[in-house]
Each structure stands twice: as structure tokens, then as C-alpha cells.
Design brief:
The protein is an all-alpha fold and about 150 residues long. The protein contains four helices and no strands. The N and C termini lie far apart (about 155 Å).
């Protein structure tokens, strides 16, 4: 029975059933095969677990390596965070300066806009005065030509 079960495993069936073992043997009954297969499965599970168990030295080395890796990773992360914080602070300072510069430029623009409106009003007044003086000059010239001997 055990030889048939092992043979099935070698053929690629990692979990042979009682019926498959019976078919491989070609004779017998399930009532005789079942208790032997139960013991075979238990022994096989123990053997596989022991083969797969990691030695404590390996586990300790892995734990140490992971601890060192974590330490380096957190240091790198902190260095990156510090650099990003410095970059952020620099950007905030630059933004503050640009905001102040912008406010100064807006104030100068408003002053120039007010000066432009004042000069435009002055120009309109001078043009109006010029037209009135031209009219007065024209009136005086006409009055002078009517009364002039000719």
C-alpha cells in the first residue's frame, strides 16, 4: 500500500486517494487501505513540514537583515522628507517675495493709472481752452477785418 502511494506521488499525484492506491495495487479492499493511508498521510505531512522548516540560524539572519534594511530605508525616507521640507520652505519664501513684489507692482500701476487719468483730464481741459481761444481769435480777426479800412 505504501509503495503504491509513493509510486503515485512520484508520478505527480501529490495527494493520492484510497481508491487510486487500490487501483494501483489491483487487489484488496478500502477498509484495509484506509488505516494505512491515514498513517502514510500523517507521516508524509510531518516529513514535508520538517523538510520545509527553516533553520533558526537562517531565520535569525533574515530578521537581522530585515532590521538593517528597515533602518536604512527609514533613514533614506527621513533624508528625502528633510530635503522636501527644505524645498517647500524655499518655495514658500519665494512665493511670499513674489506676492510682495506683485503688490508693489500693482500699487505702482495704480499710481500711474491715476496719473494717466489726471493727465488725460488736463489734456481735455487744455484742448477745450485752445478751441475757445481759437474761436475768440477768429472772432477778433473778423471784427478787425470789418472795421479796417480797405
Amino acid at each position: 500500500i505504501i509503495h503504491a502511494a509513493n509510486s503515485l506521488v512520484i508520478d505527480g499525484n501529490n495527494n493520492p486517494t484510497n481508491a487510486q492506491v487500490l487501483a494501483r495495487i489491483g487487489k484488496g479492499s478500502l477498509s484495509h487501505i484506509s488505516p494505512v493511508m491515514r498513517e502514510w498521510r500523517a507521516a508524509r505531512t510531518t516529513a514535508i513540514s520538517a523538510a520545509l522548516a527553516m533553520p533558526s540560524e537562517c531565520r535569525e539572519m533574515i530578521d537581522l537583515s530585515l532590521s538593517q534594511l528597515w533602518t536604512v530605508a527609514t533613514q533614506e525616507a527621513q533624508t528625502t522628507l528633510d530635503a522636501l521640507a527644505t524645498e517647500r520652505d524655499s518655495a514658500v519664501t519665494m512665493l511670499t517675495n513674489l506676492t510682495a513684489d506683485n503688490a508693489a507692482l500693482v500699487a505702482r500701476l495704480e499710481e500711474r493709472d491715476a496719473r494717466l487719468h489726471s493727465l488725460t483730464a488736463d489734456l481735455a481741459a487744455v484742448r477745450k481752452e485752445n478751441r475757445e481761444l481759437q474761436k475768440e481769435l477768429l472772432t477778433m480777426a473778423r471784427a478787425g477785418t470789418k472795421g479796417a479800412p480797405g
